[in-house]
Amino acid sequence: MIHTVKAGETLSQIARDYRTPLSSIIGANPGINPNVLYIGQQIVIPGFPDPNTIPYQIDISTENRWLRLFKDGILQKQYPIAVGRMLHDTPVGSFIIINKAPNPGGPFGSMWMSLSKEHYGIHGTNDPRSIGHAVSRGCIRMHNQDVEELASIVPIGTAVSIHP
C-alpha cells in the first residue's frame, strides 16, 4: 500500500492512522527521513494490499448521506448513512479499510471497520433512528444489517472516498 503525504502530516501520525508501528514504516522505506516529509511524497505502508488490486471501492457522500459500493467501477448497492454533526465533521479524503471488529460494543452496533484515519470508522449503531442525520462524532453510521453485509463483502485494504 502506498500513502501519499498530505499537508501537515507527520510520519508518527501516518503510523497511528494505519495502526502500523513507526519502525515498520521506516523499515519499509529505506532512506526516509522520519523528521522531513514533503507533500506528495510516496510512503510504503507494509501489511496492506494495493487498493488498486481490490475490485471493490466505497464512495461516501456526507451531504447526500449515502454510501455506495462499487465492484470494478459498477454500482452494486447504495446504503443510507449517518454522518458527523456540527464540530465533529466526517473527514473528507481518500482512505482504506484497515481492520474489522465484530460486536465492538457500546454505540458502535454490530460491526466496526476502521478507516486509515485515527479514531474514524464505518460502523453499525444502537440507534437506528439516527441514520440519515448528521449526529455522529465524525464516523459513518449504518444500520447493523447493512454494515454486516458490507463487511462481509469488502476486504481489508478497500479504498474509501469521502466527499461532501
Automatic annotation (TrEMBL):
Occurrences of domain LysM (ranges): 1-45
Record: active site: H123, C139
Domain of life where this protein originates: Bacteria
Residues annotated as domain L,D-TPase catalytic: 56-163
Annotated protein name in UniProt: L,D-transpeptidase ErfK/SrfK
Endoplasmic reticulum as UniProt keyword: no
Keywords: Cell shape, Cell wall biogenesis/degradation, Glycosyltransferase, Hydrolase, Peptidoglycan synthesis, Transferase
SMART domains assigned to the protein according to its UniProt record, in alphabetical order: LysM
Entries under PROSITE patterns matching the protein: LD_TPASE (PS52029), LYSM (PS51782)
Family: Belongs to the YkuD family.
Pathway the protein contributes to: Cell wall biogenesis; peptidoglycan biosynthesis
Species this chain originates from: Lysinibacillus parviboronicapiens
InterPro entries given in the database record: LD-transpeptidase (IPR050979), LD_TPept_cat_dom (IPR005490), LysM (IPR018392), LysM_dom_sf (IPR036779), Transpep_catalytic_dom (IPR038063)
Keyword Cell wall biogenesis/degradation among record annotations: yes
Pfam families in the record: LysM, YkuD
